[in-house]
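During the second year of the project, the team shifted from modelling isolated chains to modelling whole assemblies. The rationale, set out in the original proposal, was that interfaces cannot be judged from single-chain predictions alone. As a representative example for this report, we include one of the complexes processed in the last quarter. Its constituent sequences, exactly as entered into the pipeline, are reproduced here:
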Amino acid sequence: MSVKPTPRVRVPTQAKPGELLEIKTLISHEMESGQRKDASGKIVPRKIINTFTAQFNGKTVFEADWNPAISANPYQSFFYKASESGEFAFLWKDDDGSVYESKHKLTVA
Amino acid sequence: MVLMKTETSRREALALAGIAGLVALLAPRMSFADAAMVDAEIKKLYGDKKFESGKVKLDVPEIAENGLVVPITIDVESPMTDADYVKAVHVFADGNPAPGIVSYKFTPACGKASASTRMRLAQTQNIICIAEMSDGKLYSTKSSVKVTIGGCGG
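Output from the structure prediction step:
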């Protein structure tokens, strides 16, 4: 059941200064809510990605705190205003402590 | 004769399964949050501060066929400059096992205070969205979603 979550991010690689970019992210994860019961009636322990962070050149630009009410394979889109060239780092923090990461370069010209 | 017998037993089995299903549906399984719990959560964050209406746009479907995946888009009107931007947005629901759905932290670098995700809704309920501006002003909005099939438990 537990496969390693794979992040998928759609973000432009080039932009003009001041251009508004829409960033769409998706990660495969079951987002086990801790509410569900298995066949034997035992509650399946909670295991979700609780925080999503978007950084640009090491500075946090957007953060989302997810609750168990977020659907499986969580999707998140948001905006970023391009100002300089650099690198995006998207981080997903799991309840079990692991962090899934995806990096994308952006050229502003 | 033999054929009829098997058919009856199959029908009985189906009826039994149906009743079992109904009982499982009706039996109380979990407690849900209510409007008071949402208010308590909001109070924890902002105390007794006043909320203004406007500025926050909450885009959710009027009717969600599948409560497991309900799209939600939040849009807050703001110039998103260093002097005037949206600091945080919190989304709550008053009919899920827990009131919180998601909290966002925006920065002026976002350029636009807008975000979309997908949420689970256990039943028909209200979605409450609160935006905190950099000057400390609070705005809120509310929207109800009709859920045909709940997205909780199994």
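The mean pLDDT of chain B is 85. The longest helix of chain B spans residues 2-26.
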